[in-house]
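Hello Y.,

Per our agreement to keep a running log of every chain we model this quarter, I'm adding this entry. I've kept the format consistent with earlier entries: sequence first, then predicted structure.
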Amino acid sequence: MGTAARHEAQEPFGKEKEYRFPPGFQRNLVWYVLRKFRPLNPIHLFQHLAETYGDIAHYKLGSQHIVFLNHPEYIREVLVVQNDNFIKERTVQRSKMLLGEGMITAEGAAHRAQRLAAQPAFHRQRIVEYAGIMVEEAVHIRDSWRAGEERDIATDMMHLTLNVVARTLFATDLREEVYELAAAINRIMGLYNFLIMLPAAEWLVHLRPPGLAAFVRARNRIDAVVYRMIDAHRKSGLDSGSLLDLMLAASPAENEGSRQSLFLRDQVITIFLAGYETVANALSWTWYSLSQNPDCELKFQEEVDAVLGRRLPTFEDVSRLRYTESVMAESLRLYPPAWAMGRYARDDFSLGDYFLPAQTTVLISQFITHRDPRYFPEPLRFDPERFSAVAKARRAKFTYFPFGAGARQCIGESFAWMEGVLILATLAQKWKLRLVPGHPVEPQPLITLRPKYGMRMLVEAR
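Predicted structure for the entry above:
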């Protein structure tokens, strides 16, 4: 299977002679981190594993077996064929400290019930209705910019997409609260790696040591905004058919009062984080990529002008803005906001020639697979033509999956594609963006792939 055969399988650890492990680190990763990676960047680790060991690699972190996959057949096996044997792994479970029992962290029947309840909000008919709001919000920020000014486009895109999610899915106008909400989420993002690595963080959070105290304050700020939104929705007595209405209707019968509010709080925060964070980052990386590739930028601008002229885009234009969609797709290839995913095995399982124990963690990285030259020649080159209809038809499945794959593929994928295309086209009618000279650009792998230093750009009139 690809390069998997380049190395002989290593001797199993300890007494687990009945298992057959893939090639990988001979020493425990705790030792390897101390000697080789200071501090550990998971993207660098995954790159090293793929380059050294091929399509499947094994290592241990303490007593935990971990397997990293970088081949579409292995990825399909875990996400589709053997999906019932896997649940979300430790880092996702730890995000319950923020998300509670929302759609991202819930498992089994609870996850299926939440997904089923939310599905109507992402039906094609509702998606069409959201288009006008997306364009309105893009125009609002477009008209606030001034020629020659310097802006952090990453921050602007986050405020923009937060307002879009609030208005479309929750029938709420955040306006000034959007800054409070974004600041609190940014604070938690900054603490992400600390929270993931801290032993027993779920218990220590009640003692509020440094770091965790900041997390609790930020979480409380998010909760305050979300609970105000839920209470305002209840008091209005209106049923707009929004996602919040659907969630309210789907609240378990035994949930009343504060229990129902907690149930709704978990769902709302999960959708907010998933719905705004990924698109905001995708847009930030797209503006950066366009600024670095003037030929692609020119072709993108020419399509926007040819399709739209001076009028604002509508839902019907999304299918006409094919190159714009390809620009976003190529940006998602190079800088996928959902840059990695993990699963935890309930029972022993096989992958190819290997037999692995229950409680093994399986890691997959879109960032690594999307940059594999076997599937994307000259992988670091920004080339939207990779996403022409012909090129997409030729590409093997599970080599490009920016919104995940299998039973837990992102429920809002069509929402995100439409939002990205409409926002890019609306802003490009009036402006082009240039990276501030000397501004450092580095991907930061947190819950999502953020630009570590923001994205400082100069606004230029077209």
